[in-house]
Design a protein that fits this description.
The complex is a heterodimer. Chain A is an alpha/beta fold. Chain A has one domain (about 1-185): 3-Layer(aba) Sandwich (Rossmann fold). Chain A is built from 5 helices and 12 strands. Chain A has helices at about 10-20, 50-55, 60-70, 80-85, 180-185; strands at about 1-5, 25-30, 40-45, 75, 85-90, 100-105, 115-120, 130-135, 140, 145-150, 155-160, 165. In chain A, the strands form 3 sheets. Chain A has a 7-stranded mixed β-sheet with strand order 2-1-3-4-12-11-10. In chain A, strands 5-6-9 form a 3-stranded mixed β-sheet. In chain A, strands 7-8 form a two-stranded antiparallel sheet. Chain B is of the alpha/beta class. Chain B has an 8-stranded parallel β-sheet. In chain B, helix 5 links the parallel strand 4 (about 80-85) and strand 5. In chain B, helix 7 (about 160-175) crosses helix 9 and helix 8 packs across helix 9 (about 195-200). The chains are: A alpha/beta, B alpha/beta. The interface of A and B includes residues 12, 78, 79, 106 and 173 of A. Strand 7 (about 115-120) of chain A pairs antiparallel with strand 1 (about 5) of chain B, so a sheet runs across the interface.
Chain lengths: ~190, ~290
C-alpha cells in the first residue's frame, strides 16, 4: 500500500525507511501530484513554521485537507502534530486543522531541555515506548472525539481521533516501529 | 527517567533541520525575514562572514544582546557561533539557551591545537569539515552535525563543492572496503576506527551533513543538495544580496525541489544582484578560513 510522507523538510527519510521496512510503499510528497494514489499520509517532524509555510506555498494544504476529510488516515509527529491541530496557542491561524485539539508549541522548552524517556502507550502494548522529545509541543486540551494515547507528567503527548494520530515525540528516530505498524493497521481498516 | 543531552536528542535536533536552509542574521529584523521566507533555523551573528573578512582583526562570539533579540523575535531554532576551542564562549551560549552552537572557523580560533570537548555539553554542536577525517574527528569530540567549510564570506561555491565531493568519495571508498582494511584507513584519515567502521556499515556519516561556505544563489543551494548534502547554510548570500526577501524564499524553494530545474529557472528570474563574490585565487593563504581547524 502506498503511504505518502510529506517531504518538504525534516525527518522524512526516517519515516519512509520505517514504513518501507513494514512492507508499505513510501512515496515522498513535495508537490500536489505526488498525492495521487496514496492511502495514508505521514507528516514528519521538522520546523512547523517552515512546513506550514511551504504547505501553502506549494498548494498542498487544500488537497491534503480534502483527502483527509474524505477519510485518508494521517499520522503526524512533533511538527506534524502542530500542523494537524485545529488550534495552536499564540497563533492566529492553524495549518491543516484536522484534529480537534489545542497545541502548545515548544512547550518543553528549547533544545537544551529536549529529552528522551520511556512512555506507556497501552494501545500498542505493554512494553514502554522510547520517546524522543525535541523542542516538542504538547496538547493542551482535546475535543470530545479525541482519545488520549499517552501522557507525560500530566501533559498529553499522543492522541487519536478517528483515522488521525499525532505524537509530540519522534518514533522515527528510534528502532521501535509499533506506532507506524499501528498507523498501517488504521490504513488497512484493522483498527 | 528523562535524559537530556543524549546523542539521540542532540543528533535528532539536526535531523529535524534536513532539507532546510539555515540563514545567517545579524538582527531581529533579519531573523523575521528569514523565518517568513521559510528558513528552518537562523544563525545569530554580529557580522556576516563577508563583513568579518572586510573588518579583519579578531572575530569573536557575538554580543549576547543580539542573540537574545533574535531568540525573542522568532520561534524557529537559533544557532550561534563560538571560536574553535573556546570552551567558555560555548558555555555562555549554552547558558543563553541557544539551540545549536557552531564551533566555527569563521571566527578567529582560540586554541591552535584542540577543539572543544563537545560531549561535555547538553546543547548540540555543528562543526565544519573539509574531508571525512576532519568530520569524524569532530564527531568523535561530540559534534552532532557536520557541515562543509567551503570558503565563508566569498559567495564562491567552489570550495564547498570540493569538500562535499571529497567527503562523499571517501565515504563510498570506505563503504566498499573489506573490514580488514578499515584500521589502516582510519590511520590514513586520522579518524577513530569505531567511526570509520560505522561509516562502512551505514554508507554515510552517522550525523546530518549540511553544506556551507559560499552559497549565493538558488542554483548553488540545489547543487549542494545534488551532491548529497542534507541541507544548506547560507551566510552572507542572503543579506548581502540586492533583495534579501526574494533570495531567501528562492533559496528555500530550490533546496526542497533541488531536482526540479524548471522551478529553479523560474526562481532565478529577476532576483536582482547576488552578493559580490571573491575569486579565491585573490585570497592570501592567511585570509582563508577553511584551513582553520585541526
Amino acid at each position: 500500500m502506498k503511504i505518502g510522507v510529506l517531504a518538504l523538510q525534516g525527518a522524512f527519510h526516517e519515516h519512509a525507511r520505517m514504513l518501507g521496512d513494514l512492507g508499505a510503499e513510501p512515496v515522498l510528497v513535495k508537490l500536489p501530484h505526488h498525492l495521487e494514489g496514496i492511502e495514508g499520509l505521514v507528516i514528519p517532524g521538522g520546523e512547523s513554521t517552515t512546513i506550514g509555510k511551504l504547505l501553502r506555498e506549494y498548494e498542498l494544504m487544500v488537497p491534503i485537507r480534502q483527502m483527509a476529510q474524505d477519510g485518508m488516515p494521517v499520522f503526524g509527529t512533533c511538527a506534524g502534530m502542530i500542523v494537524m491541530a485545529a488550534r495552536i496557542q499564540g497563533e492566529p491561524e492553524p495549518h491543516l486543522a484536522l484534529m480537534d485539539v489545542t497545541v502548545n508549541r515548544n512547550s518543553f522548552g528549547r533544545q537544551r531541555e529536549s529529552f528522551e524517556t520511556d512512555l506507556d502507550i497501552p494501545e500498542i502494548g505493554e512494553k514502554p515506548f522510547r520517546a524522543v522529545f525535541i523542542r516538542a509541543p504538547h496538547i493542551e486540551s482535546v475535543g470530545e472525539g479525541v482519545k488520549t494515547l499517552a501522557t507525560y507528567e500530566g501533559r498529553i503527548v499522543a492522541v487519536r481521533e478517528g483515522k488521525f494520530i499525532a505524537t509530540s515525540f519522534h518514533p522515527e528516530l528510534t528502532a521501535d516501529d509499533r506506532l507506524h505498524a499501528y498507523f498501517l493497521d488504521i490504513v488497512a481498516g484493522k483498527r | 527517567m528523562a535524559l537530556t543531552g543524549t546523542d539521540v536528542v542532540k543528533r535528532g535536533m539536526a535531523q529535524m533541520q534536513k532539507g532546510g536552509v539555515i540563514m545567517d542574521v545579524v538582527s531581529a529584523e533579519q531573523a523575521k525575514i528569514a523565518e517568513a521566507a521559510g528558513a528552518v533555523a537562523v544563525m545569530a551573528l554580529e557580522r556576516v562572514p563577508s563583513d568579518i573578512r572586510a573588518a579583519g582583526g579578531v572575530a569573536r562570539m557575538a554580543d549576547p544582546t543580539i542573540i537574545e533579540e533574535v531568540m525573542k523575535a522568532v520561534s524557529i531554532p537559533v544557532m550561534a557561533k563560538c571560536r574553535i576551542g573556546h570552551i567558555v564562549e560555548a558555555r555562555v551560549l549554552e547558558a543563553l539557551g541557544v539551540d545549536y552552537i557552531d564551533e566555527s572557523e569563521v571566527l578567529t580560533p582560540a586554541d591552535d591545537k584542540f577543539h572543544i570537548n563537545k560531549k561535555a555539553f547538553t546543547v548540540p554542536f555543528v562543526c565544519g569539515a573539509r574531508d571525512l577525517g576532519e568530520a569524524l574527528r569532530r564527531i568523535a569530540e561530540g559534534a552532532s552535525m557536520i557541515r562543509t567549510k567551503g570558503e565563508p564570506g566569498t559567495g564562491n561555491i567552489v570550495e564547498a563543492v570540493k569538500h562535499q565531493r571529497l567527503m562523499q568519495a571517501q565515504i563510498r571508498k570506505i563503504q566498499n572496503m573489506s573490514e580488514d582494511e578499515l584500521v589502516a584507513e582510519a590511520k590514513n584519515l586520522g579518524a577513530p576506527y569505531e567511526l570509520v567502521l560505522e561509516v562502512h556499515k551505514l554508507g554515510r556519516l552517522p550525523v546530518v551533513n549540511f553544506a556551507a561556505g559560499g552559497i549565493a544563489t538558488p542554483a548553488d543551494a540545489a547543487l549542494m543538495m545534488e551532491l548529497g548534502s542534507d541541507g544548506v547554510f547560507v551566510g552572507s548570500g542572503i543579506f548581502k544580496s540586492e533583495n534579501p526577501e526574494k533570495f531567501a524564499r528562492a533559496i528555500v524553494q530550490a533546496t526542497t525541489h533541488y531536482q526540479d530545474y524548471e522551478l529553479i529557472a523560474h526562481l532565478s528570474k529577476g532576483l536582482g544582484t547576488p552578493m559580490k563574490g571573491i575569486d579565491l585565487n585573490t585570497l592570501r593563504d592567511e585570509e582563508r578560513m577553511a584551513v582553520r581547524g585541526w
